[in-house]
């Protein structure tokens, strides 16, 4: 199995769901597909397509830049915080390595966080509660207040 899905969070939790993925390229479309499927029952008013694009970029970065001497996984969690949606992507890399880049027109990589920065209302990176790094984005007004 290449992933696990937590689609039944406890009733008093703001977490709507989570998935754990192997650090392999096939996990990127899997993350998009499963997020779309499991966010749908919550009927967000925000653009699910934008959220899927941002998740795709962050999972790609997690796979590309995550590092560990042990076998490791990428974890994606999504939360409802009032009217906002927050998505966290965890990997075993170092928080200091996450930075917004400004690639040249001919550069093949380096635009993922620029996309997140332009689509999300906010984003941040820092130490993950699982060890390593978490990169999060927030979409405000994802649900009516």
Automatic annotation (TrEMBL):
GO molecular function ontology, one term from the record: protein serine/threonine kinase activity
Matching CDD domains: HATPase_RsbW-like
Superkingdom, taxonomy of origin: Bacteria
Database matches in InterPro entries: Anti-sigma-factor_SerPK, HATPase_C_sf, HATPase_dom
Keywords for the protein's UniProt record, in alphabetical order: Kinase, Serine/threonine-protein kinase, Transferase
Domain Histidine kinase/HSP90-like ATPase: 23-136
Protein name: Histidine kinase/HSP90-like ATPase domain-containing protein
């Amino acid at each position: 199995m290449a992933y696990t899905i937590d689609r039944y969070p406890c009733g008093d939790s703001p977490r709507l769901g989570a998935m754990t993925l192997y650090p392999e390229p096939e996990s990127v479309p899997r993350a998009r597909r499963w997020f779309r499927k499991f966010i749908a029952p919550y009927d967000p008013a925000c653009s699910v397509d934008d959220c899927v694009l941002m998740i795709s970029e962050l999972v790609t970065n997690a796979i590309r830049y995550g590092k560990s001497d042990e076998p490791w996984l990428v974890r994606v969690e999504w939360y409802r915080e009032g009217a906002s949606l927050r998505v966290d992507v965890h990997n075993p890399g170092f928080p200091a390595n996450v930075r917004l880049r400004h690639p040249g027109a001919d550069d093949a990589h380096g635009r993922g966080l620029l996309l997140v920065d332009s689509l999300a209302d906010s984003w941040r990176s820092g130490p993950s509660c699982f060890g390593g790094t978490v990169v999060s984005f927030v979409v405000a007004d994802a649900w009516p207040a």
